[in-house]
Write a structure and sequence with these properties.
Sirohaem_synthase_N; precorrin-2 dehydrogenase activity; SirC_C; five-stranded parallel beta sheet; Rossmann fold; precorrin-2 dehydrogenase; binds 1,4-dihydronicotinamide adenine dinucleotide; binds ligand SHN; single chain; ferrochelatase activity
Length: 210
């Protein structure tokens, strides 16, 4: 497994199947701001509502070869081996990334369990060995991660641009951030003393000498 975070903003993605597993995968794609089409003769209620609200496009039909044209990513959640195999073959011919939810050998990628807090994304995966453990760890860690780091991240992103403007080289910035993002600063962050933490980092940028 090689972890990558796909950037799917506005990209056309298709989920085949309209059951509860498809629903979870659709939600994850919408969170990633993809444009989602669902192909399935039947939808669970929540997906129907999403289709009525134009959050997704619904093609009410069984999958046919040719349906993948124009999509950049496919999730197959039909739970039926012959159809899954056909969809996998078609996706590979068209060189489109595919995930078949009940067959890891037919997956180019697997979905992790995730905690999203603003721009911060924390994921858990088990190489398909126990999705239940991924879920357990996600539930457990959700309590540890409220929005503290995400709020700090918004400020850090601005400070990072200031550091880029003031510190001449990438090496300088690497050295700078490894010492600037200290336990002392992060302790202030945990106490939500963002202004104080930001002040320390800004002073450090101003006084940095390579
Ligand atoms: C390979 C993978 C492919 C993929 O879907 O990408 C896959 C495959 C399969 N899942 C199955 C079952 C379950 N999946 C879950 C839950 C999740 N499954 C997710 C991901 C993945 N599941 C990928 C690997 C992830 C990893 O590496 O850990 C999560 C993390 C992400 C998400 O789906 O968004 C999400 C938790 C989200 C959350 O809550 O945070 C639960 C628990 C529950 O729902 O309570 C169960 C029942 C308990 C159990 O079996 O463990 C089955 C057997 C079906 C059967 O028995 O018929 C298969 C097929 C097989 O194993 O062959
Ligand atoms: N990866 C994961 O996270 C998990 C995977 N699974 C597996 O995922 C599969 C799907 O599970 P559910 O959503 O509960 O199943 P489901 O049976 O409720 O849903 C299947 C959906 O696919 C549609 N469908 C069937 N054939 C089709 C075709 N040829 N073209 C288009 N649509 C078609 C059906 O109308 C239905 O909406 C099962 O094999 C299940 O074991 C189960 C739990 C978690």
């Amino acid at each position: 497994m090689y972890p990558i975070n796909l950037i799917l903003d506005d990209k056309p993605c298709v989920v085949i199947g309209g059951g509860h597993v498809a629903l979870r995968k659709v939600k994850a794609l919408l969170e990633a701001k993809a444009k989602v089409t669902v192909i399935s003769p039947i939808l669970v209620n929540e997906l129907k509502v999403m289709a009525q609200n134009n959050q997704i496009i619904w093609l009410q039909k069984y999958y046919e070869t040719g349906d993948l044209n124009g999509f950049e990513l496919v999730i197959c959640a039909v739970g039926e081996d012959n159809a899954s195999q056909q969809i996998y073959t078609d996706a590979h011919k068209a060189r489109i990334l595919i995930n078949v939810v009940d067959k890891l050998p037919l997956c180019d990628f697997a979905l992790p369990a995730k905690i999203r807090r603003g721009n911060l994304l924390i994921t858990f995966s088990t190489n398909g060995k126990s999705p239940a453990l991924s879920r357990y760890l996600r539930c457990k860690m959700e309590k540890e991660f409220d929005d503290t780091y995400a709020l700090w991240l918004d400020r850090l992103s601005i400070l990072r641009n200031e550091a880029i403007a003031k510190l001449p080289t990438s090496d300088d910035r690497e050295i700078f951030w490894r010492s600037a993002l200290s336990d002392e600063v992060m302790e202030l962050v945990k106490q939500k003393k963002y202004d104080e933490a930001e002040g320390i980092i800004r002073d450090a940028i101003d006084s940095f000498r390579p």
